[in-house]
Amino acid sequence: MNIKTKFNYREATFRICIDRYQGGRMEGRVYSERLKSPICFSDWGSLLLQLDDVMDLQRQPQAFLKQREFGETAPSIPSGLADPALPYMDRETVTAAQGTLLTLLVNVISRQHASWQGVAEVVGAEGRHPFSSDMELLLFIEGRLLELEP
């Protein structure tokens, strides 16, 4: 499988489009120039696991420590990279994607201590929010979603 493994900062950014949020559960799509098609997620866990799989497969950013594996397991291919015939998404497609409730740009700069470090920003709002763990990122996203509730 031909998988792209080198990206500049813009290409490496994930555009997270949140379409639904109810009872602490969010649903949406992820777009990026490092993907061939959008990744759909149905909750916090599926978002984190699928993006982690993308970063593992593309080795960008590389995890500080390699996860231990017991027995032979085939690597998980995220849905956004599954079809080798598809080209990678172009900048216009990624930029045009909008969530019904919220759209965020997330750039994971490093992965240390079994977590993510990077920067997140809400599209259409000022300011960037650095995060030092995936939990901080999720709390930031949830805080923005709660601000939208009546």
In short:
With 150 residues, the protein is α+β, with helices and mostly antiparallel strands. The protein has helices spanning 9-12, 44-58, 91-96, 134-148; strands at residues 14-22, 25-31, 39-41, 102-110, 117-122, 129-131. The model has no long low-confidence stretch (mean pLDDT 84).
What does this structure look like?
It is a single chain. By secondary structure, the chain is α+β, with helices and mostly antiparallel strands. It has one domain (about 15-65, about 75-150). The chain has four helices and six strands, in the order αβββααβββα. The protein has helices spanning about 10, 45-60, 90-95, 135-150, and strands at about 15-20, 25-30, 40, 100-110, 115-120, 130. It has a six-stranded antiparallel β-sheet. Strand 2 (about 25-30) and strand 3 form a beta hairpin.
Q: Estimate the mean pLDDT confidence.
A: 84
What share of residues is helical? 25-40%
The strand line-up of the biggest sheet is 3-2-1-4-5-6
H/E series, N to C?
HEEEHHEEEH
Task: Set down the secondary structure blueprint.
Layout: H1 9-12, E1 14-22, E2 25-31, E3 39-41, H2 44-58, H3 91-96, E4 102-110, E5 117-122, E6 129-131, H4 134-148
Antiparallel strand pairs: 1-2, 1-4, 2-3, 4-5, 5-6
Properties at a glance:
150 residues; 4 helices; single chain; 6 strands; alpha+beta; six-stranded antiparallel sheet
